[in-house]
Structures are given as structure tokens and as C-alpha cells.
Design goal:
Layout lengths: L6 E5 L4 H12 L3 E6 L2 H11 L3 E5 L5 H15 L2 E6 L14 H29 L2 E6 L12 H20 L5 E6 L7 H4 L13 H15 L5 H15 L8 H39 L10 H16 L1
Parallel strand pairs: 1-2, 1-4, 2-3, 4-5, 5-6
């Protein structure tokens, strides 16, 4: 059975941002395949969302499981147009007390699976020269947060991996997008508490630091905003539009491109004017012309030296 609708696959799609993504993709006319480790919850989510949703069990840390899912979708439903690497975990505790097995599991799910699943999907998309891969990272990949050191590191790795891969695929029909949401009100972020801050509570800096953590962790928006960012990137990719910098960034790019030229021209004009003025003084004094040379700066220095000698 081949489906005429564009097909999107969302890993970790049974809950949270993944579920919201599936809901919004349905509204945009996609047939959505949600893959999650808990098959019962995934099937319940698929029944809740409607007929255009297919549930599948997926262990993102197992390349065999991922390859079987991709093969099933491509064979039974049709070519994958949009792949969203959304699955992730976020255990919170100081790194000094975190079990090594927990840290390795965070790395395996949040980063290693992104690399392996992206490689498997690319093998299908590259021959068709079209497709979009969206990697869900986090704002902590840009500004790390205490208490989630390994999680922050994996999200920073996802950002770097996505940027490098986007450069490699620049001249193909594929699009690589990375989304960096802040904390949202999902089950994954519900149990996060600010890390313990050592020292006296009377320290103003520590009170401010704790207040910043509480503001970051306590007031997360609904998962609709990151879902909208994913949909915007997918829509631009389907329309063949490249992401362009904003007007302010373009303005600064123009300023930076013009500024060095203006500085070079200004310095050249200033040095040549200084050179001409000092040369006229030297010639008026009868000393003779300045030493010949191609470097305007050296000629100006020589002119200044001669003018200081004449002023004595």
C-alpha cells in the first residue's frame, strides 16, 4: 500500500514535543509515522491522533530496529520526505554523582542515535536528491545548564553535527535543520529542579543564580513553539527556499564587508597626505627628495623623521 501524502517519521513521537509535532504535521497534510520504545503508549497516541498516523516500536539505540522501521515505511507506505530525530532523555543530577551507565545512555540516545539514524535515512534520500532531516537539540547546547552537564554536551554535539552535515549537503536537494528549544512543559522537563548552590544563602550572587535557574526551569512554554519551528523549516525545504539571515544580520554583514576597504582607503589617504606635506617641507629646506620605495607607510615615517630633524 503506497500513500499519496508526504510521509514524516518522528522518533520519540508518543509524548511531549514529538506528539505535538505529529499533531501539527497531520494538520499540514502529512502521513505521520511515530516511533517510540513503548509500543502500547505509541499505539494509544496513534489512535488518539487519527487514521493518518502509524505507530511503530523503535529503539533508537539499535541500528537494526531503525533499519527495519525505515525499510517498512519505504516499502509499505512510500518514500520518507521528513525525518525528525526527536527522541531524547534528560536525567538531572550533578555530574560528580552521576552513574557512568546513565551518562553513557544519555550519549547513546541523545547523540549517537542521531548520527546512526541520520546515516540510515541519508542512504534513502540521497539517490532521490530530496528530503529533510530535522534534529532536535536544545538551548542548553548553546548555553549549558548546571545539573545536566552530559545532556548539554550531547545537544552541543547535535548542533555541531547538524551544521557540519548541512555544509556537506549544501549542493544537494537535501535539507538539514536543527531546532534548539528552551525547556517546555513536557514529562521530560517536569521533574527538573535547580541544582543545589553551595555557600551561604545570603550571598546576593547565589540568590540571583538560583532565581535564574528557577525562571528557566519553572516557566517553560508549551511544546507548540518548537513544533512550529520544525514545520517552518520543513515548509521552506519543500518550497526550495534557503534560510536567509534577517535584515539586521544582513546589515552587519554589509558593514563588515565595507569597513576594511574604507579603513584601508582612509589610511592610504592619510598617509599619502602626510607624506606630501612632509615632502614639501623637506624640499623647501633643500634636503632633497624622500627615499624611493613602494611602501607608503615607510615613506611617511621617513618624512616624519626628516621633518623632526629640520625642526631642531
Amino acid at each position: 500500500m503506497t500513500i499519496s501524502l508526504p510521509i514524516a517519521v518522528v522518533t520519540g513521537g508518543a509524548r511531549g514535543i514529538g506528539k505535538q509535532l505529529a499533531t501539527d504535521l497531520l494538520a499540514r497534510g502529512y502521513h505521520v509515522v511515530i516511533g517510540d520504545l513503548d509500543l502500547a503508549v505509541t499505539q494509544e497516541t496513534a489512535r488518539e491522533l487519527g487514521e493518518s498516523v502509524t505507530a511503530a516500536q523503535l529503539d533508537v539505540t539499535d541500528p537494526v530496529s531503525a533499519a527495519q522501521l525505515i525499510e517498512h515505511v519505504e516499502t509499505e507506505l512510500g518514500p520518507i520526505d521528513l525525518w525528525v530525530n526527536n527522541a531524547g532523555i534528560m536525567p538531572t543530577e550533578p555530574f560528580s554523582t552521576q552513574d557512568a551507565r546513565v551518562a553513557q545512555r544519555i550519549i547513546a540516545i541523545n547523540y549517537a542515535s542521531v548520527v546512526s539514524l541520520t546515516g540510515l535515512v541519508l542512504q534513502r534520500m540521497l539517490p532521490r536528491n530530496r528530503g529533510t532531516i530535522v534534529n532536535m537539540a536544545s538551548a542548553t547546547g548553546i548555553k549549558p545548564l548546571a545539573g545536566v552537564a552530559v545532556y548539554s554536551g550531547t545537544k552541543a554535539a547535535v548542533i555541531a553535527f547538524s551544521d557540519a552535515l548541512r555544509r556537506e549537503l549544501r549542493h544537494t536537494g537535501l535539507t538539514i535543520t536543527v531546532v534548539n528549544p528552551n525547556l517546555v512543559t513536557t514529562a521530560m522537563g517536569a521533574g527538573i529542579t535547580p541544582p543545589a548552590l553551595t555557600g551561604s544563602d545570603g550571598c546576593l550572587a547565589r540568590r540571583h543564580a538560583r532565581a535564574r535557574h528557577e525562571a528557566f526551569l519553572g516557566g517553560g512554554p508549551a511544546p507548540t513553539r518548537p513544533a512550529a519551528q520544525v514545520l517552518e523549516g520543513a515548509a521552506r525545504a519543500r518550497a526550495g527556499l534557503a534560510r536567509r539571515p534577517g535584515r539586521k544580520r544582513q546589515h552587519w554583514a554589509r558593514r563588515r564587508s565595507r569597513r576594511p576597504t574604507r579603513l584601508r582607503q582612509g589610511r592610504a589617504r592619510g598617509l599619502s597626505a602626510a607624506y606630501r606635506s612632509r615632502q614639501s617641507v623637506v624640499r623647501w629646506a633643500g634636503v632633497g627628495a624622500l627615499p624611493a620605495g613602494r611602501d607608503c607607510a615607510s615613506r611617511a615615517r621617513a618624512a616624519r623623521s626628516l621633518s623632526r630633524l629640520l625642526s631642531r
